Amino acid sequence: MSMSGHHAAAIAYLEESRDVLQRAIDDPAFLDALTRAADRVAGALASGGKLLALGNGGSAADAQHIAGELLSRLNYDRAPAAALALTTDTSVLTAIGNDYGYEAVFARQVRALGRAGDVLLALSTSGRSPSVLRAMEAARAGGLVVLAFTGRGGGAMPERADLVLHAPTDRTPLIQQVHIAAAHILCGLVEERLFPRPEA
Question: Which of 99, 141, 162, 175 has its CA 20 to 30 A from that of 7?
């Protein structure tokens, strides 16, 4: 592929990304789900609860990214917020996967670490990941608030969630881009609500 061909491919992808973000901007249901999700997370954290985040592959990276933004900081210095990604402990993941099967790797952690009033943020671009769906079921049974970030269809996530944010596309990389943009907005709203920015 020539340099101009590379440029054309890059421009086409960036234009598609722009169009997907514009669809999110223009979708009142997307914006409502995002602001309601921030309210749920802020409410749980303000009451002494925590956020548990999980997903597979790129969604696992997103779960870790989100936990990092809350535990450390996003836009300014403030106290840490309680967030945990269930995707990071290789001993836990491999022990549960070996002993109970991969489908149980998140559900078992939710049962052990989740408490009523906590929030589970489940990320799946397809909405069909068995390990994610089982974790959502475990969270519902344990009295956690269940938030789902997924793609346009949502797979089997909507019936297992209290609140669903649908990225307005079926393309996995673009869904992931929308998810992390939405997560940054969510974390920013939570940060502002729980830890108001110091007056200049």
Answer: 175
